[in-house]
Amino acid sequence: MKKTFLTAVMAVAILVCSAQVQFGLFGGPQVTSCKYTIDEKKQPTSSKYGFQFGGSLKVPFDTKLYFSPAAFYSLKGYKVKFNQHSCFPDSLAIDNNTTIHTFELAALLQYDFSTCPAHFFVKFGPSIDFQLSGKETFNRSDRTTVDRNMGFGFTQYGHYAANLITQFGYETKDGFMLFAQYTHGIGSMNNADAGPGIWHRVIGISIGKYLNKKK
Questions:
Q1: Which of 78, 181, 204 is nearest to 131 (CA)?
Q2: What is the torsional sign of CA 115, 121, 122, 126?
Q3: DSSP single-letter state for residue 150
């Protein structure tokens, strides 16, 4: 494991040092929610505010096509009210309010709409997010309230979830970038048997800069 990690770090370092590869940092606010179903019946959800920040590479493939992997922290969460019975997160729960700390790895392709230094671009591809920790607060039908850490495991919330990411943005000749991002969860973050289906939904705006922009 240690050898594999060091190899990966060295590979990234070589890419970043390459004259053909650009390394950028980005961050910004986002609105997060989810698609939540119980017995395939959609539950009413509302949004929460979060943010993301991290780094990405821009590796050339073709004239206007690039590989743009990214690694970033993302604060997610959702609010949901239940109109169906479920044993998860609690058999008496009537709602839930969660805040989830995640680390996300994305394998994106980037297409630049022009070869000019300043141009619009689009990115798309899959990602895996690692649910690091979380808090949940829910009210029960017996008029009590539960405020606790989220549990992760084979019969609880999942440590991993899969997503599809789309970005549309603009890059300046000096390497600054501004983009809107939509994250569409395709893997439920719940592992409990007969439990609900929970898929992330995130919309955000980020700004960033390539630190070694080509002249």
A1: 78
A2: positive
A3: P
Q: Cα dist. 101→63, 115, 132, 207 in Å?
A: 37, 37, 6, 21
Instruction: Go through the chain and tell me how many residues it has.
Output: 215
Number of alpha carbons in the 13 Å side-chain half-sphere of residue 115: 4
| pTM (2 d.p.) | 0.87
Locate the domains of the chain by residue range.
23-210
Distance of alpha carbon 193 from alpha carbon 64, whole angstroms: 46
Largest CA distance in the chain: 65
Task: Decide yes or no: CATH 2.40.160.40 for domain 23-210.
Answer: no
Residue 97 to residue 99: CA distance in whole angstroms: 7
The token duo for 61 is 């493939």
Strands 145-149 and 119-139, sheet pairing:
antiparallel
How many CB atoms within 10 Å of residue 66? 19
Average pLDDT score over the chain: 91
Query: Rounded to whole angstroms, how far apart are CA atoms 104 and 125?
Result: 13
Rg (CA), the chain: 20
- For residues 48 and 26, what is the distance between their CA atoms, to the nearest angstrom? 21
Q: How far is 108 from 105, CA to CA, in rounded Å?
A: 10
Mean pLDDT by 10 residues, the chain (215 residues): 50 54 96 96 97 96 93 98 93 97 97 95 97 97 97 92 97 96 95 91 97 71
